[in-house]
Design a protein that fits this description.
Shape: globular
Oligomer: single chain
Largest sheet: 5 strands, parallel
Strand order of the largest sheet: 3-2-1-4-8
Helix content: 25-40%
Radius of gyration: 17 Å
Strand content: 15-25%
Order of helices and strands: HEHHEHHEHEEEEEHEE
Structural class: alpha/beta
Number of helices: 7
Length: about 240
């Protein structure tokens, strides 16, 4: 807990200070997908995204490890991953960058090793449906790792079209999330860029729970294994 506090990382209360009924709770982490190098090579080098395929996988894995270390095997962790973007990046790397090849099997193995329920999703409707219907469990946390702007989570940014996302969760759709989905002390945070500039306010209005988001861009290249999550080139807000 001290280390997490010093690093400014979010965490749900320690079991020593709050006896949690983990059977009735679920902590959800969602990972958007990477850009294709085919599109990103059209940008100036300083503006390119996702040279490493696993930015949003690695960050989520670090957070999963932190939560597991903090709360032990009892905490129910669910990992939602946007599959189409990883399949297309896998196909691209297999041909052009085999030394950097990613596979969906690797993601499956990471989840299995950590006792995490892995759920692949293909569209935002599935994500909303899952958050609304979890067999009576409330969410003690929700975190997003992926591309975003001030209005949307962008699940396939620059994967199908340069600089565009065809699959996204827009703040105009947040009213579809049910009230009462979260515990009173739930942690909600987006590690995408710019979320704290507008989407966080709509999230709170729609769900009743604050969402920490970035004012400015987030930097996934700053990740250090088991130590830090993405940093913000600006500030966090909710």
């Amino acid at each position: 807990m001290i280390l997490l506090a010093l690093l400014g990382l979010s965490s749900i209360p320690d079991t020593a200070s709050a006896q949690r009924n983990y059977a009735q709770e679920e902590y959800v982490i969602a990972s958007g997908g990477p850009a294709l190098r085919y599109w990103e090579e059209y940008r100036m080098p300083k503006d390119q995204h996702d040279r490493y395929w696993g930015n949003f996988i690695r960050a989520a894995r670090i957070r999963i490890d932190q939560l597991r270390a903090q709360h032990g095997p009892a905490i129910n962790l669910t990992w939602l991953v946007y599959r189409p973007a990883y399949e297309s990046r896998q196909s691209e790397d297999a041909v052009k960058r085999p030394q950097y090849l990613c596979t969906t099997a690797e993601v499956t193995t990471l989840a299995a090793e950590r006792g995490v329920k892995l759920i692949w999703f293909n569209n935002s409707n599935f994500l909303i449906s899952y958050l609304n219907n979890r067999g009576g469990r409330k969410m003690s946390g929700f975190e997003f790792y992926g591309h975003s702007n001030r209005y949307c989570f962008l699940f396939d940014y620059s994967n199908n079209i340069l600089g565009v996302s065809s699959c996204y969760l827009h703040c105009a759709d947040l009213h579809r999330l049910h009230r009462g989905l979260f515990t009173k002390d739930a942690v909600v945070q987006s590690y995408g860029c710019h979320t704290g500039e507008y989407m966080s306010r709509v999230w709170k209005k729609s769900t009743g729970v604050p969402m920490i988001g970035a004012v400015g861009k987030t930097d996934f290249s700053a990740i250090k294994d088991n130590v830090t999550l993405p940093t913000v080139n600006g500030r966090w807000a909710q």
